[in-house]
Every structure is written in C-alpha cells, then in structure tokens.
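debug: dumping io for the single-chain case to check the tokenizer round-trip. Nothing else runs in this session.
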Amino acid sequence: SVKYGFDAMMSDCLIELSVQRQQEMLTVSIADNGAGFPDKVINELGQAVRHPESADVDARHIGILNVCRRLHLIYGDGFSMELSNRTTGGALVTLCFPPESPRTII
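debug: decoded output
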C-alpha cells in the first residue's frame, strides 16, 4: 500500500484499519486513499488468493500473497481475502477468518 499506492500523492496519505466480528467470523478491512489497484492486478491477485498454494504472481505483489499463504496455513478454508478498489478512490483489502485458530503453528 505505502510503496505503490502513495508514490505520486501530494496530499495526505491515509490508511484505515477496521475490525468487526460478524457472526462467527472476524473481518479485518485495510483501506487507503492511494491510487488503488489496477484491474489487471485485482484479477491476478484475486486468482492467487483463492489458490495461494499454486499461485505465480508478479514479484511486486509477493507481500500480499505471502500474507495470504500464511493466514491460509493457520485458518485453512476458514480464511478468505478480497482485493478491491473503493468507490471513493484507493484500495481495499478485506480479510475474513474465524476468531480462534484451529491449528497451532510453531
């Protein structure tokens, strides 16, 4: 977000973090007011986060994929990640997972 979304910004850079519990899931939303994701990146990373074990993405996006892979290791199919652009501008990443980990990672 910081490296790519804010490179050319002249105004204040903002990152918003929101955590909500909805039924039996935690939803963490990270939004910014930067440039947002290009459509190609949303499509490419969208596929990668749905199948992180076999994803092959551009090296510039490896950070998002690493986060996805690690959370998928802990939560399995209970984890999901969605990438989108906000209608007001900027990017939005939404993570959903159970409030307690079903696995112990050492």
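debug: round-trip ok. Residues 75 and 102 are 6 Å apart (CA to CA).
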